[in-house]
């Protein structure tokens, strides 16, 4: 009899244990909870979602702010190129040496600044099917090139001397080449805009 009672007790406990196992295995796990860790409370999960959304908005705002700052910097640089404001000029145009080189070129009459219009005239003459005009165009081309080279040599020599007298202790590297490149541009197209008049001593 005792054996019968014990068997029945085991049979009654076994279904209960199986039910408990099935119930535990089907318990829903929070999607944000990592495996092997307890499911976070709803308030904690909501706080985490708000934190992620806030971070995303902050990044968008930072990107927008950077675009606005770049736009403002470009606008300041554009105004500085027109006014000569040293604070916002590009790095290649900053400094007293570069400013003096610009003023030296802008105060002179440079043959090189008329290179483009003269080149157009010579090109038109060379396209006309008249031998005499083509010969004149070739001669003009040679004269223009020689004059520009001589003028550039004189300008570079004088500027180098003035820079050595005016800025003996400053870095003058590249200033002469910078000025000669500027002399090739038409005066009204130069940037930064000329701040001195022709004939005005810088």
TrEMBL record:
Superkingdom of source: Bacteria
Keywords: Membrane, Transmembrane, Transmembrane helix
Comp. bias (Polar residues): 44-56
Organism annotation: Streptomyces caelestis
Keyword ATP-binding: no
InterPro entries: DUF3043 (IPR021403)
Protein name stated in the entry: Membrane protein
Positions of the UniProt region annotated as Disordered: 1-79
Bias (Basic and acidic residues): 58-79
Transmembrane segments: 111-130, 136-157
Statement: the UniProt record of this protein carries the keyword RNA-binding: no
One Pfam family recorded for the sequence: DUF3043
């Amino acid at each position: 009899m005792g054996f019968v009672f014990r068997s029945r007790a085991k049979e009654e406990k076994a279904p209960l244990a199986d039910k408990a196992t099935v119930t535990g295995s089907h318990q829903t796990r929070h999607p944000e909870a990592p495996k092997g860790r307890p499911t976070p409370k709803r308030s904690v999960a909501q706080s985490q979602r708000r934190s992620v959304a806030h971070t995303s908005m902050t990044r968008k705002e930072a990107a927008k702010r950077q675009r606005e700052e770049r736009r403002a910097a470009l606008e300041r640089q554009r105004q500085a190129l027109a006014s000569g404001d040293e604070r916002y000029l590009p790095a290649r145009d900053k400094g007293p040496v570069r400013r003096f080189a610009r003023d030296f070129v802008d105060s002179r009459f440079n043959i090189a600044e008329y290179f483009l219009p003269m080149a157009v005239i010579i090109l038109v003459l060379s396209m006309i099917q008249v031998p005499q005009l083509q010969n004149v165009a070739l001669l003009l081309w040679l004269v223009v090139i020689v004059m520009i080279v001589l003028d550039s040599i004189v300008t570079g020599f004088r500027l180098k001397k003035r820079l050595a007298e005016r800025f003996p202790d400053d870095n003058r590297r590249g200033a002469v080449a910078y000025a000669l490149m500027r002399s090739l541009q038409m005066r009204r197209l130069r940037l930064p805009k000329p701040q001195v008049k022709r004939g005005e001593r810088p």
